[in-house]
Amino acid sequence: MSGPMEFDLIVLGGGAAGMAAAISAARALQGKRSVALLEHGPRVGKKLLTTGNGRCNLTNLGPLSGHYHGNEPAFIQTVLAHFPSRKTISFFESLGLLCREEGEGRVYPYCGQASAVLDSFRTELEHLGVRQLLEYHPQRIVRQKKGFQIHCTEGIPSCRRLIVATGGKSLSSTGSDGSGYRLLQELGHTATKLFPSLTQIRTDPALMRPIKGLRCEGAVSLLADDKTVRREKGEIQFTEAGLSGICIFQLSRLSGEFFTLHTVNGKPTRQIAVSLDLMPDWEPSTLTSFLVSRRDCRPYAPLEQFLAGVLNKRVGQTLLKAAGCAPLHRPSGSLTDSELSRIAALLKGWRFQPSGLSTWNAAQVTAGGISCREFSPHTMESRSIPGLYAAGEVLDVDGDCGGFNLQWAWSSGILAGQGAAASLLAPLNNQKGAERFASYR
Ligand SMILES: Cc1cc2nc3c(=O)[nH]c(=O)nc-3n(C[C@H](O)[C@H](O)[C@H](O)COP(=O)(O)OP(=O)(O)OC[C@H]3O[C@@H](n4cnc5c(N)ncnc54)[C@H](O)[C@@H]3O)c2cc1C
Fold it and tell me: Does the predicted TM-score (pTM) go above 0.90?
């Protein structure tokens, strides 16, 4: 790298939170202080390109409360209140990006391309003169009297203020390999247990084999010790390894908590199950009479066709087998009332036993992280190490699917950038004040 290696502010990690932090800091500093973005990958914003299936669901205009998880809910809501989703829209407008709201409050770039979000960041970073230190691999951070040295294999950049925005552990091919947790822990911060979230739920592959690759609409519930703890509606995807789809992703956080901590919503739990309701708009009582009349209307129809037109054919046949109705070549008229009750019960509550979650690489976010109570929710500054800030997924905050995770990245990143800039300008402002005061005398 050419040029000096001393900066007023270094932002570690060129992802969503890091870029937002660097821009907000550089805007506030107005060229009076230097800002660098240090990224260990060859380019910034790689993960952003994968978000929202390449469309980037960048925020959500619905209520933000109730969609975040972590040990410090009040901390999360304070940060979000400082920078809510309306401000995100204005922020992106200031970057020249037009946004569009779709169903359930989800907001995307109007053009539907995640690359447009990244392009707008890159142009602004360049315009503001933020230096990009790419392919710098930090080994450790050393505190100095007036700042920090980042010891990298490639050199030792130093700074007076440092924002750590290194992301979590999910999809490490985009650069978020979890190394930021270690860097912060070595400085004395603590981390909660980590587990993948917004991901597939694994079940017995033998059960999935006949229906893998199929999809159907329905409602899914997570049961903890037989009690429903979360219910979602949407498209259920049957995969080789288990269950997927956004509605399943929303249940994966609690499943991950169970597999990692043996609790669900903080309550000790012995077992969990996922229950599928494949006819959520039907009452159980009407469903049973519907099945009785279906049997009595066409008793000659082979059983393998009994649920044709109701469910995907193969899903229907697999459900009939799961209800103990095999062989399926017999006529539908041979179904007994108790068999019909079992079919109705499975249509409303087909249970699968989760055996775990997918790998980190299949997960969208990391649950757990650096403890939020060690930071200020107003500036994101460390309570124990002045001049050190943290933002984004590296903290113990994760959100539901729907734009909530990126909203967290923007809110915390922008707050950290503003906090670091304000503290860098404070001596200048104090000095200006003193000068003004002196001129009055
Ligand atoms: C497939 C997928 C789809 C998603 N879709 C959405 C969506 O549509 N909406 C939504 O809200 N959320 C979505 N998310 C989640 C969202 O992308 C993340 O929550 C968000 O990117 C986190 O931002 P971050 O800046 O904290 O971390 P990241 O975006 O992961 O950025 C961290 C950056 O730090 C760098 N880094 C890491 N360690 C170091 C180090 N030691 N030194 C230097 N640099 C380092 C990384 O290379 C990376 O560039 C999705 C995630 C995935 C994986």
Answer: yes
Sign of CA dihedral 36, 42, 48, 54: positive
**Full 3-state SS string of 399-440:** ECCCCHHHHHHHHHHHHHHHHHHHHHHHHHHHHHHHHHHHHH
Contact present, 47 and 194 (Cβ < 8 Å): no
Distance 169 CA to ligand 1 centre (A): 9
Q: Write out the CATH class of domain 6-195+361-440.
A: alpha beta
How far does the centroid of ligand 1 lie from the alpha carbon of residue 39, in Å? 12
Strands 350-352 and 272-277: antiparallel
Q: Relative to the CA of 175, which ligand 1 atom is closest?
A: 47
Distance (Å, rounded) from C-alpha 393 to C-alpha 372? 11
Q: In what order do the strands lie in the sheet with 59-60?
A: 59-60, 106-109, 99-101
Q: Which residues contact 237 (CB under 8 A, 6 or more apart)?
A: 214, 215, 243, 244, 245, 248
Q: In the block, which residue shows the tokens 């003004």?
A: 436
Q: What is the mean pLDDT of the chain?
A: 95
Q: 432: burial class by Cβ within 10 Å (0-12, 13-18, 19+)?
A: exposed
* 279 secondary structure, DSSP code: -
Residue 327, preceding bond cis, omega within 30 degrees?
Answer: yes
In the chain, which stretches have pLDDT less than 50? 1, 433-441
Q: Cα–Cα distance between 329 and 413 in angstroms, integer?
A: 61
Task: Compute, in angstroms, the gap from residue 333 CA to the centroid of ligand 1.
Answer: 56
Domain extents for the chain?
6-195+361-440, 200-357
Q: How many other C-beta atoms can be found within 10 angstroms of the C-beta atom of residue 410?
A: 27
Task: Tell me the pLDDT tens digit for each residue of 427-436.
Answer: 656 555 444 4
